Amino acid sequence: MRARNIIIGGLALLLTSCGQQYKAEKTVKAFVEENMEAADKISGRDFADVGTTRHISDSLIQIMRHRGAPLFKQGISYGNVPQGELFFLRMRFVHEGDTLQNTFYLNQELTEVVAFK
Questions:
Q1: Rg (alpha carbons) of the chain, rounded to whole number
Q2: pTM of the predicted model, to two decimals?
Q3: What three-state secondary structure class fits 22?
């Protein structure tokens, strides 16, 4: 009986984390499609596992928003900065033969990108 409960709990945790990964990737893909200058010219998108961080301050978010990143448009509209933890997701991709990487910070619901670098 106890082993069965452990297995059920493990499966529930696995399904939850897979759902978070899928949702985060979907949000980042939409953000990239909308805000990258040449989104149709990138290939080989590869995502790392979604993670959480508390080490991103409001001032650091403002700096990332101001700087943006190469290949992305200026004047991007971001989500509101939540209190507490942020999720992050790294995306690797190929552009004109170069392998590049960006890290995207998302709100707790994984529905909006609040900053990226």
A1: 16
A2: 0.81
A3: helix
Residues 6 or more apart in contact with residue 25 via CB below 8 angstroms: 47, 89
Angle at 110 between CA 109 and CA 116, to 5 degrees: 130
DSSP state of 72: B
Determine contact, residues 38/88, Cβ cutoff 8 Å: no
CA distance 83 to 68: 22
* pLDDT tens for each residue of 12-53: 444 345 789 999 999 999 999 999 988 888 888 999 999 999
In three-state secondary structure terms, 94 is: strand
pLDDT by residue (tens digit) across 87-103? 999 999 999 989 999 99
Q: Which residues pair with 36 in a beta bridge?
A: 72
CA-to-CA separations, 52 to 32, 105, 110, in angstroms, rounded:
20, 9, 11
Residue whose pair of structure tokens reads 């509101």 in the numeric block: 80
Amino acid at 79: G
